[in-house]
Every structure is written in structure tokens, then in C-alpha cells.
User: Fold this.
Amino acid sequence: MTIAHDASISGAAQPNTYDVAIVGGGPAGLSAAIWLGRYLRRVVLIDAGDPRNWETRGIHGYLGLESITPGELRGRGREECRRYGVTLVDATVAAVDQLTEGAFRVSLESGETISAARILLAIGVRDVWPDVPGLDKCYGATAHVCPDCDGYEARGKKTVVIASGRKAAGLAFALTTWTREIVICTNGEPAAMSAEILEKLDALNIPIIEAAIESVKSSGGEARSLELRGGMTLDCDQIFFAIGQEPSDDLGSQLGCARDEIGRVVTDLHFHTSVRNVFAAGDIIHGPQMAIAAAGIGAVAAVAIHHSLLPEGQVL
Assistant:
């Protein structure tokens, strides 16, 4: 594997030795790298180049950058990192080992190693999609997973929720902010909802269809209909679907960081994990999965990391 070092910090005492190694180059990792660069810290950001939601056509609600694409946001962030002397390494991390309390070894798949005094995990999560043929063709345009991010685009439109159980009800209830033309399709699964939830859905005139989905029909990324088993066609303009999630890699587990019941890394208010000098930010921790939130969390984590590196004589 060829590793691309986009920038280097002049005057480095030891090659491949840094104050902070950040794993993950999404909004959280990039934001943290920029802030740490402004603190004049020696920072390396390692990114595998396989971001979540790469197909999304635009990031909504990002202050001053409405509808910017994920690729454009990452590109701007990487360029800003370079201006602050951050080293960008395009590679996959194979392992992170804690040698001492303030010394970590980051091993890349290429065999190269990097040393750092602090680690920030910004590795994100990997989505597990439902098996629905054709869904990928309109993902990011008219098929979404987050009503908070993309519900505005569904205002007044025929919207299908693909999910079952409480997830389906949660998506449907959230979407009533923007539209009342909502149908739940469980894709062959039982509805699996309590009588109380069913009563609420009925009061909102939200029907449930349990037939399996044969395919999503779309044109130019625009959803048109769902073809259901048995020959039924369900017209739609927007689709929201539930996904499963898992950590993008097992680095948190390798380091022994405490995790919650679904694998997210547990942190304190300063985004410090249960392992001293290891921090985490972005979708890998509990919280809203929004680009603007991830960037903010990355900045706050960077402030905490900087203060953790200050010598005793500079701390009140």
C-alpha cells in the first residue's frame, strides 16, 4: 500500500511521532485536527477513505454550508488541516497498542507504525442496510435514514417508511412534522407493535403494509414506487428506512474502552474514554448522528486533548 503524506510539520524531532493521532477523517476527526493544529500540536490524521454516507447528495442544516456534499466538506476540511500543519495519512489502521500511559503505537495495514501521546477515535459506524433491491439507486436523493437531517425534503410528499416495530413507529411519528402522507411497509416482517402504538398510528391515519418489497422503482435518483410481493404497487416520493449499525472497526475494543450495549464508546463530558489519554468523538459515541454535531464534538474533544498535554507548570 502506498501511503500519501499530504503534509508534514517542520522541525519534527522524531519521524512518525506525534502529540495526537486521530483515526477517522470525517467531520469529527477533521474538526479536531484543525483545532489541535491551531494549538500548535503535532497531529496526524489517519483515514481509510471509506466514509459513511458518501452517496448523500447534500448535508442539511450545516451552518453556512447548506447542502454541501460530504466530499466537498471533507475536501475543505483536509485543505484546512494542511494549512495548520496536520499530517494527513491515507491508510487503514490495523491496531492501536498502549505502550505506557502516555504512549501509543498505531500500526497501519502497510506495516508502518506511528507513535502518539494521545489517541482520538473518530472512526464512526458502519450502516447495515435492509435487503431491498433498488434502494441504493435513490439513496441520498429521495431515500434517507435520518428524519432530523432530511425530513424537510419530505414536506407534503408521499412518504414510505421501511421498517418494523418501534423503529418504524419512531420514524413515522418524526416525519409527521413535515407530512401526513405516510405509509409503513415492514418488508415482510411482522409489524411487532404494541396496541398503544397501533392506536396512535391509526389516529394519524398511518397504515401498515406487511408485504415484502420486490424492488424500489426510481428515475434519476427520484423514488417513484415500491413493487410489493403479490403485485401491489405503492407510489411514493420519499423513502425513510431503518438501519442497523456497528462500529467501523474494533479499535475501541482493542484499547479496552468501555462501550454501551450496542457497541458505542462511552465517554465523559470532555469525550475522554475509560482508557486514560484515549478520546472519542463522532458517530462512534452516543449522541445525535449529524455532521454539524460531530464537528462540534470534535472541536470540544480537541480542547480537552490540548489541556491534557499541558505540563503541570502551565495548569491552574
About this structure: The first strand starts at residue 17 and ends at 23. Residues 1-12 have pLDDT under 50 and may be disordered. The radius of gyration is 22 Å.
